[in-house]
Amino acid sequence: QTIVPCTVSQLLAAEQVDETFRICDVEISQVTVVGIVRHAEKAPTNILYKVDDMTAAPMDVRQWVDTDEAGGDNVVVPPGTYVKVAGHLRSFQNKKSLVAFKIMPLENMNEFTTHILEIVNAHMILRKNLMSASSAPPSFPSAGIGDMGGYGGGGSLPVNGLTAHQSQVLNLIKSCPVPEGMSLQELKLQLRSMSMSTIKQAVEFLSSEGHIYSTVDDDHYKSTDAE
Amino acid sequence: IHPTGKLFVLSDGVGKHTTVELSEPLDEEISGIIEVVGRVTNQATIMCVSYVQFREDKSPFDLELYNEALKIIHEFPEYFPFG
């Protein structure tokens, strides 16, 4: 079970099937969110915060209070404070909220920047793992961003006979609805981190393996897989 | 900060500036890193709705890294959606 950094907008967009939430097919349960407290309401058994990360309207975050415990956890975080929330996503009557097991005021605002980068990194890796049908649970460091540049340049481990680059190119071509297929220019636009030569190599390989075929000219390709 | 307190100029740390306008004059002194939430006007200024001062008492804020992070999130809207 992993804890996934998310934006509020991602949490609101998450689809629920029975007890499970998914963001673009990635299963999520425990999440972290960084935002600013807009409102704090203290009740006998819990504190209700509204946390705003500017990607959507502020989200309800509930923190249960141990009434026997004195001090520490019972201190309400004042509005205007940036916090990192770790908790579980919940949905009740179609309204999403978080139940927090930890709310930490940010002492170092660089954690805010880190969280932003971790969100992109984590969701990119999680979706990539789904695409390459990996069964290993994803693990990514919570401190240290890893090599963001490595995602575009590396990814050369073949899975299902296709490298990550080839998979990406193939999936894009598969998803193209127009009859003349997807052009190399369009692929380059969508795959900004991939060089044109890498894209061309992937296209050549996919074409030779029979996954795609050229249509109007050598710059346009469609997938042979029926969608 | 303008003498009337209704205007201040922000620098993004890499040479660009922007003017922030307030509907009410500032009632406190502000300095350092400020995060402004507001609307862009057609004079290319920002009409401020709210602002918050980033705390830098424990560590300085790396504005350059933040700018790089922004470029990344705009490049990958599929992983960082603005709802």
TrEMBL record, chain A:
One of its GO terms (biological process) is nucleotide-excision repair. The keyword Phosphoprotein applies. It comes from the Eukaryota. Residues 136-219 form the Replication protein A C-terminal domain. It is found in: Nucleus, PML body. GO terms for molecular function: single-stranded DNA binding. One of its GO terms (cellular component) is chromosome, telomeric region. Keywords: DNA damage, DNA recombination, DNA repair, DNA replication, DNA-binding, Nucleus, Phosphoprotein. The keyword Iron-sulfur does not apply. Belongs to the replication factor A protein 2 family. This is Replication factor A protein 2. It comes from Manacus vitellinus.
From TrEMBL, chain B:
The keyword Lipid metabolism does not apply. It comes from Manacus vitellinus (golden-collared manakin). It is found in: Nucleus. One of its GO terms (molecular function) is damaged DNA binding. One of its GO terms (cellular component) is DNA replication factor A complex. InterPro entries: NA-bd_OB-fold, Rfa2. Belongs to the replication factor A protein 3 family. Pfam families: Rep_fac-A_3. CDD domains: RPA3. The lineage of its organism: Eukaryota, Metazoa, Chordata, Craniata, Vertebrata. One of its GO terms (biological process) is nucleotide-excision repair. Keywords: Nucleus. This is Replication protein A 14 kDa subunit.
